[in-house]
Amino acid sequence: MQAAAATTGLATLGAPLRALPANPDVVVIGAGAAGIAAARTLIGQGLEVTVIEAASRIGGRAWTETDTLGAPFDRGASWLQGPADAAHVRLAQANGFELRDHSNPRDVLFIGDRRADTTESRQRDRTWSSFYSALLNARGDVAADTVVPMDANFANVISTWMGPMDFGVDMDQLSRMDWYAFAEFGANYLVREGVGTLVAGLGHGLPVQLNTAAHSVDWSGEGVTVETSAGTIRARACIVTVSTGVLASGAIRFTPELPDAKQTAIADLPMGQLLKIGLMFDGTRFGLSPGDFLSHDIAGDLPSDACYYLAFPNAHDYIVGFAGGRFGRDLEREGEAAAIAFALERLQEMLGSDVRRHFQRGTMAGWDGNPLARGAYSAARPGGFGARRALAEPLGERVFFAGEAMAIPYATLVTGAHMHGESVAQKVAAQLGAPGCDGCAARGQDKGRRIGTKD
Does residue 305 lie in a domain region? Predict the structure, then answer.
């Protein structure tokens, strides 16, 4: 199926077109996955909603664009991962999107310029299992690198997968409890048309005011007053869905100031970094299959200049390089040309000189330097896992917070952000006595497996 086939059904994903109310029941700050889900839910309960978005598009950190590489390229969220009944999965399937299961991709390990042999691959797999067991059976909200066998064969490879690639931070900055609380996936899909295309489709028709930044939220009165770059909005309640990086920056002022517990929670949930580098080729596959992961042995100390790859996702003619944690942050600062050159050089070391001969063009997708994100997704500091729940606590029953940072047990995921936005909106609808809210409070409870009680 061609990518354009699903886009014809995008209008059916969104809500009916609605005008922006002057004084809505609820103002939603941010039109990413959480804000879109919250707005859809509130409107479904009969409430008037205004969504303000500082960017010139909707979708937040889910953004698909086709111009740079000539094919849908997810510059942000790239997988639909989470529970099997995730709304994104159901809506994508119902609207003709092409989902490709990525639950068991082939992981091709390189040692220098050669593929690992069977013995080496088995050693790598044993180390992965020992890391998993150590993190599962350890106690305390400690740094992940303090409980895993860092002297094992291929420990650096596994550390890079589990830390920078999965959570956007190095293992010494990864909370073991954050890892432990993460639920197993019931769904793990790549989307041929792009995850960002799907998320944007869900926002079609919503009352969104683009290029409108929130400057302050005054919750000192009965309702809320939000000062924006386009004027003042007064509402009965507000849902804040911006990233913890934006909250930490002080770009949005709160009156009264955020309580100490809320400020501590924000500080304990800094943004991780996962830089994406798209490398477009002429159709040559280099002996790889679409969806393969490529990793390489790492010598020396961590953090390392590691770049792992996803080969030809959705059968498109590009390979995506990933660089996370401290190194990914440093590489983004060097700029797009440097990032492309590095990813291409490392790939050539693995696959040989044909890489450059068949390479056409590249692009860098980084979120660390984006003032509307300030990172890829949240990562709880060691000792700070409780911040995810603390951040979710509302202020005065009129300022609520939603997003991937609070989406236990699917934090960091676009599906988690959607679920949490929907859940918070149900609570707001119940709080406001929405006309269509019969049983909202019950439906607004967090979903997912129970979090372990290890301390």
Answer: yes
